[in-house]
């Protein structure tokens, strides 16, 4: 038999220029690897990439052995016939030969994937290899193990590939789903053959999903179960009685598919929504699941299942003939599929298992395997992930196109802008608009009047979204499709058009649903073209554990949260809800939030570069010179309030004075408070909490009197009284005497910086401890939504208390991500420590919390020696991320203390080592402020020497810096300081 030749698919070009206004990916993703190499050996530090390399011609390749199974089947059959030993020894001999063939085939598939970069071809090759193995197993089972000379009509069988395997494409770790199709009920011969084949496949270590059914049973179950219906829809004949498979196909089309298109589409869309709900609805989550996440392979498969079912096609080319896709859109489908299969196959080969999640642990290695290189301001891994998210976006575009076609056939419901669903019935309803004669309402959605709308007046590309927002109506997919095809009309002239900019500002600052409309504008590519600076951050990810979304997704979510703050629909926003109503003009906040991270991915500080971009864009949007300067200031200082609130002592007068010098006036501080709230909340789930809300509130009210010349809307004493009254109301079961005694135990800073929920927990915990007659006690609470466990420790205060608690947590395997330290008037320390959760099940996490509490209590009572325990139990830190350690020793941030700020890669035991080092340097820690931003720890300590004075000597400060940087390096040498950058 001649080798089977397959022409490799065209190289998938990047569509960034037509969609987001930025080129993003090297050709090496789906091309020979040497495209990703420099044309000549580049000097160290060179950033020259494959983007400038020539594109070679694409030769045809032959699949051949080991992917063509004729020779393998003959070899295995000859081996079986020549076997002279006991029959029980036959299967191991066959399995050994097939294992060898599979190992050689997989190695060759990986080699070819690295050579030609085609993920689709790799998946096809692996499927062909699987076909060859199954054909060989079937041949041996039917001709050697259970031969039959004169089979009856019942002794027939077709072996059929179903599900993903049925498509003829497999990843290295994919399951092998097969169906044994029988004409009638099972016979002894059929059962023996199926069992023999399955044992061979199981011995090979394959994950086999199998079923044995008659044709009638297949059809009956397909009618009742959409999952089985989908599996049969994707079925492919492998070996056996082909007439039996053809009968199944013909009857499936007639008895199951015919007349049930609407039912199938509705079921698959509902299945998709549930899958995305479990995986995370955003396609821009920075650790996506290549198979299951939005914009992944499963979305492409669902799209094609629906098309295949409704239009009865077998390829995307046939959808072009049906008028569903254009030729370019069909090529786009193939390019997206090729890229996603390339990523998935590389991921399986890299991890040597069926890993579908692009976790941080593998992203960097994946970028290297796929040939990405670093650019100024962007790492190779960030460029790879940007390309991934752009492909996910293209998958979303294709889904919208098919949805439009299905809706036109009345096979799908019509979603409303805010989630309302209306069913198409009867004649279409079309309403003309007074705002513009170029648009109309078509079946409750905004549509264009003809295909020349945007060419006649390019401002209509912005007007489309402004009208949709004003009328609170959803877009017709045809209008969005036409807008995406008309991006070339967005040029410098349109960007400077006053009407276009006015309409854009109306959309951005809308009181309806600005986030939703801007999201549609972004998905079509209009936003990235109209604001090219925004286009540069479309699909851009940041390689860290703190940001959950891409930069553009974060910015759009910020707008949505600001709109929520303005409507006061979520009390979790805290002070921002009250301040928003007093901010005028309000549109400055919307503009600032849209632009605050727009300079990410540049080699310079994104806050400074962002302010420069604001000074360029704001006049274009119609803002005055004064308004432009305010927006630029907000962008340049957008991190200041969060940093001060979380890492400075808010009871220190110097902290407040320094912050007041930055914000300068009350109006700016109000805007910065709201912006900071929205920014933190849009980072990701669980990042914002009552603790941070209370810190921002405290900073705001502490600074307000400084900015207003001593006058405050709510002075400090009054706020303490209000906080005490709130707690008294929450402790309704306490007597007045009990509460009065308890309230006197806390200093004013405690009442101002601790949120009410925590105050209630502390009060009941302290009361229970005293009633039990204990001097030392601990308690724990699981906070599921934040992924942490909060430990509270009550103990007699002493200088090394925090260090001991941190060491005990580390010895118990707990990583501290946050901490609040308080001291009572009667000499007790009340410390609240947040550790990263380790178990999904609450009961498992509760047992772990009990072990941590036990470790803390034993360490504080001296039952265990921490240095010895730490040396044995402290795990080695992973090096997925690299964070350059920095140490700042500053005497201007406090009047009474030297402030030591330490930042670097987080790891279990870090806080213990830092505090222990400070103690060995004979420094008293007056207060500590512990925070973690993903993989980065930022710990701030207010310290004095043993005499209570600041650390002023340059030599002593240098020693402190060297010692603390040595903590990150695992060593400390007095004579030879580590060579690291430090800030003074």
TrEMBL record:
> Which reaction equations make up its catalytic activity?
[protein-PII]-uridylyl-L-tyrosine + H2O = [protein-PII]-L-tyrosine + UMP + H(+); [protein-PII]-L-tyrosine + UTP = [protein-PII]-uridylyl-L-tyrosine + diphosphate
UniProt region (Disordered), positions on chain: 28-65
Q: Where is the HD domain?
A: 551-672
- What is this protein for, i.e. what is its function? Modifies, by uridylylation and deuridylylation, the PII regulatory proteins (GlnB and homologs), in response to the nitrogen status of the cell that GlnD senses through the glutamine level. Under low glutamine levels, catalyzes the conversion of the PII proteins and UTP to PII-UMP and PPi, while under higher glutamine levels, GlnD hydrolyzes PII-UMP to PII and UMP (deuridylylation). Thus, controls uridylylation state and activity of the PII proteins, and plays an important role in the regulation of nitrogen fixation and metabolism.
A Gene Ontology annotation in the biological process aspect, one of them, is: regulation of nitrogen utilization
Report if keyword Hydrolase is assigned: yes
Note down the stretches annotated as region Uridylyltransferase: 1-432
Q: Report what the protein is called.
A: Bifunctional uridylyltransferase/uridylyl-removing enzyme
This protein's species is Azorhizobium caulinodans (strain ATCC 43989 / DSM 5975 / JCM 20966 / LMG 6465 / NBRC 14845 / NCIMB 13405 / ORS 571)
Query: What PANTHER family does UniProt report for this protein, alphabetically?
Result: BIFUNCTIONAL URIDYLYLTRANSFERASE/URIDYLYL-REMOVING ENZYME, BIFUNCTIONAL URIDYLYLTRANSFERASE_URIDYLYL-REMOVING ENZYME
Q: What is its EC number?
A: 2.7.7.59, 3.1.4.-
Question: What's said on domains?
Answer: Has four distinct domains: an N-terminal nucleotidyltransferase (NT) domain responsible for UTase activity, a central HD domain that encodes UR activity, and two C-terminal ACT domains that seem to have a role in glutamine sensing.
The taxonomy runs:
Bacteria, Pseudomonadati, Pseudomonadota, Alphaproteobacteria, Hyphomicrobiales
- Per the entry, what modulates this protein's activity? Uridylyltransferase (UTase) activity is inhibited by glutamine, while glutamine activates uridylyl-removing (UR) activity.
SMART domains in alphabetical order:
HDc (SM00471)
The protein's required cofactor(s) are namely: Mg(2+)
Gene3D superfamilies noted in UniProt: 3.30.70.260, Beta Polymerase, domain 2, cca-adding enzyme, domain 2
Q: Which residues form the ACT domain?
A: 790-872, 899-983
GO MF term list: [protein-PII] uridylyltransferase activity; phosphoric diester hydrolase activity
């Amino acid at each position: 038999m001649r080798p089977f030749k397959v022409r490799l698919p065209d190289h998938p070009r990047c569509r960034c220029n037509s969609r987001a206004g930025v080129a993003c990916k090297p050709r090496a993703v789906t091309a020979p690897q040497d495209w990703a190499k420099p044309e000549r050996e580049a000097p160290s530090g060179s950033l020259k990439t494959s983007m400038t390399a020539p594109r070679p011609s694409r030769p045809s390749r032959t699949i051949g052995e080991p992917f063509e199974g004729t020779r393998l089947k003959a070899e295995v059959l000859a081996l079986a016939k020549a076997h002279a030993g006991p029959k029980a020894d036959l299967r191991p001999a066959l399995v050994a030969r097939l294992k060898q063939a599979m190992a050689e085939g997989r190695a060759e598939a990986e080699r070819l994937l690295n050579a030609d970069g085609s993920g689709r071809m790799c998946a096809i090759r692996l499927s062909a290899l699987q076909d060859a193995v199954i054909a060989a197993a079937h041949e041996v089972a039917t001709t050697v193990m259970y031969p039959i000379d004169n089979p009856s009509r019942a002794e027939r069988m077709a072996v059929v590939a179903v599900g993903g395997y049925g498509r003829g494409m497999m990843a290295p770790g994919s399951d092998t789903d097969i169906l044994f199709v029988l004409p009638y009920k099972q016979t002894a011969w059929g059962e023996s053959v199926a069992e023999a084949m399955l044992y061979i496949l199981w011995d090979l270590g394959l994950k086999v999903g199998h079923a044995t059914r008659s044709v009638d049973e297949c059809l009956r179950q397909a009618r009742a179960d959409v999952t089985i219906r989908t599996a049969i829809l994707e079925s492919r004949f492998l070996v056996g009685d082909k007439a039996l498979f053809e009968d199944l196909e013909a009857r499936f089309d007639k008895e199951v598919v015919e007349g049930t298109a609407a039912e199938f589409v509705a079921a698959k869309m509902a299945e998709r929504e549930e899958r995305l709900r479990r995986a995370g609805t955003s396609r821009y989550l920075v650790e996506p699941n290549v198979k299951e996440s939005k914009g992944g392979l499963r979305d492409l498969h669902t799209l094609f299942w629906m098309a295949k079912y409704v239009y009865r096609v077998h390829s995307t080319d046939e959808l072009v003939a049906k008028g569903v896709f254009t030729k370019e859109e069909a090529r786009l489908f193939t390019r997206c599929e090729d890229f996603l299969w390339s990523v998935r196959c590389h991921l399986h080969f890299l991890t040597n298992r069926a890993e579908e999640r692009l976790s941080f642990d593998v992203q960097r290695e994946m970028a290297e395997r796929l040939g990405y290189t670093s650019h100024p301001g962007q790492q190779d891994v960030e460029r790879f992930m940007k390309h991934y998210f752009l492909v996910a976006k293209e998958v979303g575009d294709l889904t919208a196109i098919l949805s439009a076609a299905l809706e036109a056939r009345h096979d799908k419901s019509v979603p409303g802008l805010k989630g309302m669903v209306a069913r198409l019935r009867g004649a279409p309803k079309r309403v003309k608009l007074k705002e513009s004669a170029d648009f109309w309402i078509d079946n409750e959605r905004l549509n264009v009047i003809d295909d020349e709308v945007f060419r006649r007046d390019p401002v209509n590309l912005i007007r489309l979204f402004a009208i949709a927002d004003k009328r609170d109506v959803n877009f017709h997919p045809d209008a969005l499709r036409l807008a995406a095809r008309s991006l070339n009309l967005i040029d410098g002239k349109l960007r400077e058009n006053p009407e276009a900019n006015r309409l854009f500002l109306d959309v951005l600052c809308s009181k309806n649903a600005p986030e939703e409309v801007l999201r549609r504008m972004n998905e079509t590519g209009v936003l990235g073209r109209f604001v090219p600076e925004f286009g540069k951050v479309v699909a851009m990810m940041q390689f860290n554990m703190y940001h959950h979304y891409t930069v553009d997704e974060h910015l759009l979510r910020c707008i949505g949260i600001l709109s929520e703050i303005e409507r006061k629909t979520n009390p979790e926003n805290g002070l921002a809800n009250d301040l928003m109503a007093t901010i005028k003009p309000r549109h400055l906040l919307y503009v600032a939030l849209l632009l605050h991270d727009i300079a990410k991915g540049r080699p310079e500080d994104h806050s400074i570069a962002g302010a420069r971009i604001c000074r360029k864009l704001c006049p274009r949007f119609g803002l005055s010179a004064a308004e432009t300067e305010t927006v630029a200031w907000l962008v340049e200082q957008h991190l200041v309030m969060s940093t001060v609130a979380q890492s400075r002592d808010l009871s220190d007068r110097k902290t407040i004075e320094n912050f007041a010098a930055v914000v300068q006036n009350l109006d700016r501080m109000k805007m910065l408070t709201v912006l900071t709230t929205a920014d933190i909340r849009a980072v990701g789930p669980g990042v914002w909490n009552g603790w941070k809300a209370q810190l921002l509130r405290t900073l705001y009210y502490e600074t307000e009197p400084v900015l207003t010349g001593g006058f405050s809307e709510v002075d400090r004493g009054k706020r303490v009284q209000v906080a005490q009254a709130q707690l008294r109301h929450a402790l309704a079961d306490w007597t007045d005497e009990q509460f009065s005694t308890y309230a006197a135990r806390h200093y004013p800073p405690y009442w101002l910086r601790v949120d009410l929920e925590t105050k209630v927990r502390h009060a009941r915990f302290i009361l229970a401890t005293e009633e039990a007659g204990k001097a030392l006690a601990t308690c724990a609470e699981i906070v599921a939504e934040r992924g942490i466990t909060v430990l509270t420790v009550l103990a007699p205060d002493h200088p090394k208390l925090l260090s001991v608690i941190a060491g005990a947590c580390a010895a118990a395997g707990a990583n501290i991500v946050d901490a609040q330290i308080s001291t009572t008037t009667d000499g007790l320390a009340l410390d609240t420590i947040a550790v990263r959760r380790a178990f999904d099940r609450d009961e498992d996490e509760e047992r772990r919390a009990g072990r941590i509490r036990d470790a803390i209590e034993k360490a504080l009572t001296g039952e265990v020696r921490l240095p010895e325990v730490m040396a044995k139990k402290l795990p080695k830190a992973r090096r997925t991320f690299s964070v350059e350690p920095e140490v700042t020793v500053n005497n201007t941030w406090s009047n009474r203390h030297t402030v030591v700020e330490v930042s670097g890669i987080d790891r279990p035991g870090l806080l213990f080592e830092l505090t222990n080092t400070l103690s060995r340097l004979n420094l008293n820690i007056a207060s500590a402020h512990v925070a973690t931003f993903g993989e980065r720890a930022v710990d701030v300590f207010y310290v004095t020497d043993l005499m209570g004075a600041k650390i002023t000597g340059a030599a002593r400060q240098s020693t402190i810096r060297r010692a603390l940087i040595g903590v990150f390096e695992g060593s400390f040498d007095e004579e030879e300081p580590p060579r690291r950058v430090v800030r003074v």
